[in-house]
Amino acid sequence: MGAGHAHKLYRHGHSPVHALPPHTKLAAVFAFVIVVVSTPREAMWAFALYALLLASVAYAARVPPGFLLKRLLIEVPFVAFAVLMPFVAQGERVDVLGMSLSVNGLWGAWNVLAKGTLGVAASVLLASTTELRELLLGLQRLKLPPLLVQIASFMIRYGDVIADEMRRMKIARESRGFEARGVRSWGVLAKSAGALFIRSYERGERVHLAMVSRGYAGSMPVIDEVTASRAQWSYALALPVAALVVCVLGWTL
Amino acid sequence: MHVPDGFINAPVSLATGVVAAGAVAVSLRGARRELDERTAPLAGLVAAFIFAVQMLNFPVAAGTSGHLLGGALAAILVGPYTGVLCVSVVLLMQGILFADGGLTALGVNITIMAVVTTVVAYAVFRGLVKLLPKKRRSITVSAFIAAVFSVPAAAAAFTFVYAIGGTTDVPIGQVLTAMVGVHVLIGIGEAAITALTVGAVIAVRPDLVYGARGLTAPLKLRVNGELVDAPAAEPAPVAARSPRKVLLAGLAASLVLAGFVSFYASASPDGLEKVAADKGFDSKVEDHAAADSPLADYGIEGIMSSRLSGGLAGVIGVGVTLVAGTGVFWAVRKRRTTETSPSSVPENV
């Protein structure tokens, strides 16, 4: 936990987007993604406008474009899938560069690429402007079951601890001359995974006892209640509302 | 692999979201019944473990490597409720923090990767453990088979969701073959790792493995030189859920799906029909025997509104399936009770 409670995607800053209450941001991103997904794929210009909207948010949040683009790389496996679509889909076909491609498949690939990229970009913007603890508070404000939020918070809090434990086990294996090669080394790796499970579970029991000894009785005390003013809500919801206008235009035009 | 935004259309995403929310709510209650106030720290730490173990690379051959998906492992190590909960939380956090999997596809992802994998794995596992002799080896063997089934089941579930809500007309038959084919291979790897890991945990702390709870010999006390059964301290927290509730909830869910959600499903011919039309072999297909039945092609004759008729046909279909399924189930159970009753052995906990 030496790394503070910031996660990999978070980018410290003091922009107006950083300052928004977390639950408004979560609601805005969620609404935005829903609007994007329900846009007809034939309205190509609408997706350009969405990208423009996100770019303006990124500008307001002072997230540099390079940072954002690098984070978009997480999408790569699905790009591969999308590239395959025009080849396997059925229906009327066109010849592009000497290859016979399905029109429907091309539309499908475009659909997944455009909507997927916009969705990932929106999530990346959310994650890079909101701290972990804030995100969890926001989820709680959005009326997620408190138990679920607690589980998530424990997972986040101890995720790095468990991952570090796994790394130490790896170092220990390697310093004893072990090198994972092929299927035959699965036994050793699985024993490590088993040991990791036992350590995690026992740590959970210790954490619980520590909590009980500090007065835990099933629910976490809420210390900082985040509230949002009407101005903050309208500021955050400007994004999905603008997107909704584009979407309605996309359906009617 | 996480489903991104835009892969599944909006109504089906919404429907799977409702399914996922229901499943998470049920598992929250189930987990709380099993772990009471220890739920939060224990489930949280197990979720962190699953998150970490997904990063553990298992080399396959020639530089390729795979990693564990963890649904079956979670189900066997901590039980189905906590398992569903842990994998769902992992997926939720991956979606929000790491942009891995779309936010609108969260319902799809949770339904497929958390609910289907865990429930299928646990059902297969429980069934096998009941059949096999009560030994440690049978736990690992059951874990292997459960994991083998869980991964292609998830792939098939994905194909099913894609068939009703996919945004591209890829022939469903091809998707199914490709998905299940690839995932059978992945499933074998997953199964080997799951079984080895469960075996490693059982060797050290058999009490921690939820799936191995019936395995421990009953505690005996030596009182005045005689072995006496110790009084049962506490019954193992088996999921004591009245089957009626589950049945009613399932019935309600299928009625809602069949009656209301079905008319959001694509009205265009499904992948197979489409392939048939494209390849021109549908003209040769003879209408099968039930083609003039009142439910033919999922609509009711004499009802004009296509939505109403489709929904009604769905509801009637669920009813017929339910009656037929219940009949089979009762017949099987009746036979089994008559077979086992003469030599019924009290199950040791």
What topology does this entry show?
The complex is a heterodimer of chains A (253) and B (349).
Chain A: H1 16-19, H2 22-37, H3 44-60, H4 65-71, H5 76-88, E1 93-96, E2 99-102, H6 103-129, H7 132-141, H8 146-175, H9 186-213, H10 230-252
Antiparallel strand pairs in A: 1-2
Helix pairs in contact in A: 2-6, 2-7, 2-10, 3-6, 3-10, 5-6, 7-8, 8-9
Chain B: H1 10-35, H2 39-53, E1 57-59, E2 65-67, H3 71-78, H4 80-97, H5 106-131, H6 136-165, H7 172-204, E3 220-223, E4 226-229, H8 243-259, H9 271-279, H10 306-340
Antiparallel strand pairs in B: 1-2, 3-4
Tell me what the structure shows.
The complex is a heterodimer of chains A (253) and B (349). Chain A is mostly helical and 253 residues long. In chain A, 69% of the residues lie in helices and 3% in strands. Chain A has helices at residues 16-19, 22-37, 44-60, 65-71, 76-88, 103-129, 132-141, 146-175, 186-213, 230-252, and strands spanning 93-96, 99-102. Chain A has a two-stranded antiparallel ribbon. The radius of gyration of chain A is 23 Å and the shape is flat. Chain B is built from ten helices and four strands; from the N terminus they run ααββαααααββααα. In chain B, the strands form two sheets. Chain B has a two-stranded antiparallel ribbon with strand order 1-2. In chain B, strands 3-4 form a two-stranded antiparallel sheet. Chain B is globular and about 75 Å long. Mean pLDDT of chain B is 74; it is low at 266-277, 280-287 and 341-349. At the A-B interface, α2, α5, α6, α8 and α9 of A face α1, α2, β1, α4 and α7 of B.
